[in-house]
Design goal:
nucleotide-binding; alpha/beta; UDP-N-acetylmuramoyl-L-alanine:D-glutamate ligase; 255 residues; 36% helix; magnesium; pyridoxal kinase activity; globular; 24% strand; three-stranded antiparallel β-sheet; Ribokinase-like; transferase
Length: 255
Amino acid sequence: MTTKYMLAISGNDIFSGGGLHADLATFTSNHLHGFVAVTCLTAMTNKGFEVFATDSTVFGHQFNSLKDVPFSGIKLGLLPNVNIAKQALDFVKLHTDIPVVLDPVLVCKESHDVEVSALREELLNFFPYASIITPNLVEAELLSQRSIKTLADMKLAAKKLYDLGAKNVAIKGGNRLDEKMAIDIFYDGKRLQVLEKPVLSTNNIGAGCTFASSIASQLALGKSAAEAVVISKDFVYQAIQHSDQYGVHQHYEKK
């Protein structure tokens, strides 16, 4: 079978549970070969969880190094500043023939003080080129500029993001609306599907990254957006069941 190559444009998570670590582990679990263009480094300091953007010249060199790789899909994660986002968008525009998943990381789960909401307008520029976007509730609020307190609010936000140019929208609700059920929704402009799984009592990171990179993997393997979201919801659930405290992917591989 011909090897398929995936690109994660994402950051390094110092705790190795999310970011590029989750992306590469997920690609490998789907028997895909993963590459990474690193957008940032992170560290826990006396200021909290800090993000240190990759130098823009170095970031550009990464893309130049990868320009001849025949990628089958791209997953975008944390873009720490406008310059990095613009460079990533320029690269994505050269690959309009393959699936692109945008995980618009506007708020870091470890610290809501780590916000890059100034990137909102720049991230909206990705919408026409992304096969699907996968914001969490806070990111969906910032992007749609709507408050989300209920499932009905989630649905309205998904429709607003679609109207803003997203081809497909998967909003990750997690357990923020229901303590017992992890609720996500999928919207493609016609169908609005609610996806639910029981909340698992674990302490880990990387579920959102894993979800997005799993969707990218499934799209590269030929699944539709709706199929990719359903498969990825189950993949993350199984991964959390087999996780340790540092990430959702340590002890689970898709068979």
